[in-house]
Specification:
about 200 residues, alpha/beta, Lysozyme-like, seven-stranded mixed beta sheet, two-stranded antiparallel sheet, 9 strands, binds zinc ion
Length: about 200
């Protein structure tokens, strides 16, 4: 399902979703929307949508000729793109792909030294248009997928530690997105979703 669908819906919500399905979209497994109950918030940890697209298109899993990506991408100017249909399982979070939708926000994060021990601050702020779009996209998804009830940051679901590349004795987080600058309170103000886990560190 490509959910930009009707001009009427775009007008109602003021949200126009630009369809740019990835070449391997149709090779990803189909699922029933009934089993979908979770939104996972990511940031790209890459500085631009173009670079994110290059990463998204890379084939990581040769047996299915697919790669890692979210369903939706929100650019710095607030434009939103759909790269994977919501009824397909995308690889964006360990262990929870089948039940979830991945939303990726363009943000440099730790780029380009993701795994250096001294580059772990997530200091790149989200833009105001990105947050406006995020809120509208959540409202759209809540409307078309009635079973959707949870939302989590990737950093809340994947807490694996890995050795830092500059000093293997220091362990750092493999995933830290969307990080402490993501404005959860503002995003959740107009949403009926519930934070997962409920006792989240970022409140
Ligand atoms: Zn992520």
């Amino acid at each position: 399902m490509q959910i930009s669908n009707t001009a009427e819906q775009a007008q109602q919500s003021g949200l126009h979703i630009i369809q740019q399905l990835l070449p391997y979209n149709e090779r990803l497994p189909l699922r029933s929307l009934n089993g979908l109950d979770l939104v996972v918030v990511h940031c790209t940890e890459l500085p631009s949508l173009e670079i994110s697209r290059e990463y998204g298109e890379q084939v990581i899993y040769p047996e299915t000729r697919t790669g890692n990506c979210g369903h939706f991408y929100i650019d710095l100017d607030g434009a939103v793109y759909q790269w994977i249909e919501v009824e397909r399982v995308a690889h964006h979070v360990r262990g929870m792909n089948e039940r979830s939708i991945g939303i990726e926000i363009v943000n440099a994060g730790r780029y380009p030294d993701w795994y250096r021990s001294d580059q772990q601050l997530m200091a790149d702020p989200y833009t105001a248009p990105q947050i406006v779009t995020m809120k509208k996209l959540l409202q759209r998804l809540e409307r078309i997928i009635p079973g959707l009830s949870w939302i989590a940051g990737h950093d809340e679901l994947d807490k694996e530690l890995v050795p830092a590349e500059d000093n293997p004795e220091i362990l750092i987080r493999r995933k830290v997105d969307p990080g402490p600058l993501f404005p959860w309170k503002e995003v959740m103000a107009d949403s009926d979703l519930t934070r997962w886990p409920e006792n989240s560190v970022y409140g």
